[in-house]
Amino acid sequence: MAALDDLLTYNRKTEALGQVMGRLGWDQETMMPPGAAEQRGEEMAALESVLHGRRTDPRVGEWLETAEAATDADHAQLRDIARAHKRAVKVPADLAAELARVTSVSQGIWAKARAAEDVAAFLPTLKHVVALKRDEAAAIAEGGDLYDAMLEDYEPGTTASEIGALFDRMRPRLVALRDRLAGADMPAPLSGTFPEAAQMALSRETAARFGYDFDHGRVDLAVHPFSSGSGADVRITTRVDEAEPLGCLYSTIHEVGHAGYEQNIAEAYRLSALGQGVSMGVHESQSRIYENQLARSPAFAAFLHGRMTEHFGTLSASAEEFARVINRVETGFIRTEADEVHYNLHVMLRFDLERQLFGGSLEVADLEEAWNTRFASDFGMAVDRPSNGVLQDVHWSVGLFGYFPTYALGNVYAGCLHAGLRRDLPDLDTHLEAGDPAPALDWLRERVQAHGGLRSPVETIRHATGAEISEAPLLDYLDAKYGALFGV
């Protein structure tokens, strides 16, 4: 047991340093003065060098060779540490540091280009990021598929061909539902002015209702909402538009789903390889089920209408119409604002473009044209400005290639979890009508969240539901929900 104890003690410090680096990233998105970007890039590079050195330390390999696991958790710890070590030793230290520096700085360049609607101002930086990520992927893949190498960071055990086949199965039913809804009578969106202070008050109230622990977290504003941290310090961000309150509210609930996963992991796993969500797909399943299957359900809508009236006064939509308003279907440019019917189609576009970028059939210089052409084909609309197109997401500026498909995987996982949850909690709607998601949150905590990275992504969903992963529960849920709401 000495080797195992030494390895876990050493890895605990590595995980702690990783949390510090994550906190620097949170600060950069929320509070860092804009003039600090270059220095922050150097700080991130320096810290990444330290982390890379720890992950590639020869002692890690020696401990892994001799460590003996006594429990399932020990086996899982060794599995995950070995995977991280194997990956790290393949990536040159100078490349790891340069990636940290460049992606820290490029985020600010992207933000300025997006605000100025100036793709040309961002392309040189993006070209640099893509070149570095290609080098990293080539080092990890060792002759294999570059995109698969990047996917492993976000959804271990999944390949691009498997995801592509899943998307091919999903697309016909999604398009068919979208086409049926195109002829439905949609309600108008909420109208009026919704002050920032009131939006944030409602968001914090709702975050607490969905289990967010403010003693170990906080809510701030960011251009692109996100969740950061694990264990005792898990922070979320949201955004505010005073003409559109649902964006703030549902961004908050979405990020609370991510944060709830991290806050509810068993304390014994804190600052260990098992002390965070097992994959981004499983992570996304939590945020999507909180946001959509629970908070956009017709049952919860009735309660939410009353809370919004309390905060904002009389709304332009009645309580009877509110479920249709919060689930209205409309073709739009922005992924994060897309309804459940369109959302996965946005992800599929990005997935295909990423595969082309790393497969060699698409270059960065041609990315905007490829995006606009594909968007017009898939959505029947011409992109009107870059912030509604290729510049809308932060992910590529920070090198998160392979991340996008996990959003759709998360929806599929959420569909499976929702089916299991409804099977086990037949009276759930009664609780949601009273504004009480606690039975669902308890089910998710016990079945998924508490276990952190103990099981693989596939095993996590199978353990929670007792069934194999399939896209059918998600598609059946969408057909039933939207069919009932809009008569299609």
Name a few traits of the molecule.
488 residues; Neurolysin, domain 3; 2 domains; three-stranded mixed beta sheet
Description:
With 488 residues, the chain is mainly alpha-helical. The protein folds into 2 domains: 143 residues, no CATH class; 327 residues, Neurolysin, domain 3, CATH 1.10.1370.30. Helices cover 65% and strands 3% of the residues. It has 20 helices and 3 strands. It has a 3-stranded mixed sheet with strand order 1-3-2. Helix 9 runs antiparallel to helix 12 and helix 11 packs across helix 16. The N and C termini lie far apart (61 Å). The relative contact order is 0.12. The model has no long low-confidence stretch (mean pLDDT 97).
